[in-house]
Design a protein that fits this description.
The protein is of the alpha/beta class. About 30% of the residues lie in helices and about 30% in strands. It contains 7 helices and 15 strands.
Length: about 240
């Protein structure tokens, strides 16, 4: 499946590397100028101002028609917005809200991506793409596993059924927010079979290639020891 996972962060200079392949994939599917759907959360003025960052960043790549779907927090995503779309970009913000609003559309999204529609997830949009979605929390069994600021207004680490575009879990803002340790704890506890934690300004592409400014941290279960996990990091160009 053509899935592009971005760990968050903003850098105009990185826009072609982070988003260019996604737009090109949508153009191949369309056979012309692609119609890309940007799904973001919130309709208030502050949220709308934040959404303009995506419009600006994708505009630096160009070569597409961008349709913005703003989902009010607490409301379900209208699945008919996916009709006639050549590419889907799910933005960032409150990950539990993205999950709550889009969960009813996960099956439809998965079917479209399986049929060739490219998917790009930024921060929250990347986190919900996994089969075992980490949507927030900072304590596991009452113990801190990452900084409290990463909690997404949740205390206990929450792992839910995600879209299932990639196996295991995806965590984001990895090095910047200290979320690598949360992913390690999730895998070690058996809440996910494996996972990747993606730095800001970094994309994990459908071919497994890492591009951008940071690293992707791969975590797998260590079957040689109870409650263990193995960690390796991969930077762009490696």
């Amino acid at each position: 499946m053509d899935v592009h996972l971005i760990g968050g962060g903003w850098d105009d200079d990185l826009a072609p590397a982070l988003y260019g392949d996604f737009v090109e994939a949508a153009a191949r599917r369309a056979g012309a100028t692609p119609r890309i759907l940007l799904v973001v959360m919130g309709t208030d003025p502050e949220s709308r101002e934040y959404h303009e960052k995506y419009v600006h960043t994708l505009g630096l790549v160009g070569g597409h028609e961008l349709v913005v779907e703003r989902v009010p927090e607490g409301s379900p995503f209208d699945v008919t917005a996916l009709d006639g779309v050549d590419g889907l970009f799910v933005g960032g913000g409150p990950t539990p809200e993205y999950h709550a609003s889009l969960a009813g559309a996960y099956g439809r999204i998965r079917t479209l991506v399986e049929s060739g529609m490219p998917y790009a997830g930024f921060s929250a949009g990347a986190a919900i793409a996994g089969s075992h979605a980490v949507i927030g929390g900072w304590r596991l069994d009452g113990r801190a596993v990452c900084p409290e600021d990463s909690n997404e207004d949740l205390d206990a680490v929450a792992v839910v059924e995600g879209i299932g575009l990639v196996p295991g879990s995806v965590d984001v803002h990895a090095a910047q927010w200290g979320n690598v340790s949360r992913l390690v704890a999730v895998v070690a506890a058996g809440l996910a079979p494996s996972g990747v934690a993606i730095d800001e300004g970094t994309r994990l592409g459908p071919d497994g290639r890492v591009v951008g400014a940071g690293r992707v941290w791969h975590v797998t279960a260590d079957t040689s020891a109870p409650g263990g996990a193995l960690l390796r990091a991969e930077a762009a160009g490696q």
